[in-house]
DNA sequence: GGATTTATTCATCACGGTTGAAATGGTGGG
DNA sequence: CCCACCATTTCAACCGTGATGAATAAATCC
């Protein structure tokens, strides 16, 4: 009976905000962004739907808040940067795959990735995070104009792997074990980072060498 | 006049279906899937919104129908397969960039890509097209189990380039000219297609610091 | 202990996709 | 030629969505 009784603030100190966040997190992971309605979140948190707007402003705000408390993938990857450049491809790949293969951290990441494509604003956020926290450092270590480009193409390769393995689930990539991937993909990363590029003249064909 | 008089079939033989498709195509490209409402499409086609459901079943159906009449990117890429394997990276990259850089073909492709991430069913479609029309052939030419994996990783690299350049618009990739990209990226593709992979022992290695 | 701030519910809006019924033109069999 | 049937079209309504503003009650501050 204490249930649906009138309006006004509830007694005690129920951490409603956390409750909502928790319910939202579960539902977003289970049903995706579109598949999760604010009313459903409110229901799961046993709260009125208007409270979500009150606390988080909007559904996107709620989504952003749930993302904020999931492990940041770039954080993980950045820790691999300082080491020996020569072994960076293996280390970066290993760290990346580990983060995304573990459902605990991977599922939120996939959800976020979906959100990225959904919302242009989210896309800005990821782009800048990727540049500022990762590629800029890498570019600096590589040096010069070429360094910036090499770093970006490195990022493209990483992104491609994630996209095909976790979002598109393309076979056989999706079911290969991570060591196999590291072994086969690292040389390509290495080529972009350190490999010589063919002379400008050698465009259309493979050129000599 | 023929004006907005009552209900019932209109006189003559107006190809309403085409009108709707045309309007939908324009709006989807301009405003994206979410940003395009059925009522807006109906308005632009000068038709009642219910007609869309009548002809295409649902908004997704309409989206699918508009996609069906845009140039197929895989078709383009597949034409590059038969040639000399040694020059495949350059040829494939060039063809890919050309298709996506031209707004005329590229914009629909970006729209489709957004749709892919949006809808799991659409994702299946792309995955199978990519595998059946492209990677399977490439895998066969490369041969063996490794061939399948090399082909898939090749696809991942291509996908990564598209994702970062056209969807995420990561700099400096987004503003590099296509020749530059071909020059710098082709060696990496080559590494995945033909390069030797390090012996199994050398795996996470890094180990011997 | 009153004023203010914070938290909560309720009622309601505007909008989006979808549906069912009614109306109207086209078409073919008799 | 007329009437039954089918295809097309509009209209009105439904239901679910995210969002907002007013009313209300507890907590907090001075």
Automatic annotation (TrEMBL), chains A, B:
Any one Gene Ontology MF annotation carried by this entry is: DNA-binding transcription factor activity
* Pfam families registered for this protein in UniProt: TetR_C_16 (PF17920), TetR_N (PF00440)
Keyword Signal among UniProt keywords: no
* SUPFAM superfamilies listed in its UniProt record: Homeodomain-like, Tetracyclin repressor-like, C-terminal domain
Residue ranges of DNA binding: 37-56
Record-linked InterPro entries: Homeodomain-like_sf, HTH-type_TetR-like_transc_reg, HTH_TetR, Tet_transcr_reg_TetR-rel_C_sf, TetR_C_16
Q: State the organism named in the record.
A: Actinospica durhamensis
Keyword annotations from UniProtKB, A to Z: DNA-binding
Record-given protein name: TetR family transcriptional regulator
* Keyword Signal applies: no
Q: Which PANTHER family match?
A: HTH-TYPE TRANSCRIPTIONAL REGULATOR RUTR, TRANSCRIPTIONAL REGULATORY PROTEIN
Q: Where is the HTH tetR-type domain positioned along the sequence?
A: 14-74
Alphabetical list of Gene3D superfamilies matching this protein: Homeodomain-like (1.10.10.60), Tetracycline Repressor, domain 2 (1.10.357.10)
């Amino acid at each position: 009976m204490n249930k649906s009784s009138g309006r006004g603030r509830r007694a005690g100190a129920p951490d409603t905000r956390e409750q909502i966040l928790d319910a939202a997190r579960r539902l977003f992971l289970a049903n995706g962004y579109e598949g999760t309605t604010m009313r459903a979140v409110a229901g799961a948190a046993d709260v009125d739907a208007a409270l979500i707007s009150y606390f988080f402003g909007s559904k996107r705000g709620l989504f952003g808040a749930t993302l904020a408390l999931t492990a940041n993938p770039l954080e993980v990857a950045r820790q691999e940067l300082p080491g020996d450049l020569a072994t960076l491809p293996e280390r970066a790949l290993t760290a990346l795959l580990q983060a995304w293969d573990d459902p605990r951290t991977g599922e939120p990441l996939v959800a976020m990735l979906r959100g990225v494509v959904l919302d242009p604003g989210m896309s800005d956020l990821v782009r800048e995070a990727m540049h500022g926290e990762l590629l800029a450092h890498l570019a600096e270590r590589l040096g010069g104009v070429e360094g910036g480009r090499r770093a970006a193409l490195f990022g493209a390769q990483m992104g491609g792997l994630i996209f095909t393995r976790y979002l598109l689930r393309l076979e056989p990539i999706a079911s290969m074990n991570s060591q196999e991937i590291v072994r086969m993909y690292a040389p390509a990363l290495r080529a972009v980072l350190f490999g010589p590029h063919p002379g400008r003249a050698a465009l259309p064909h493979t050129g000599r060498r």
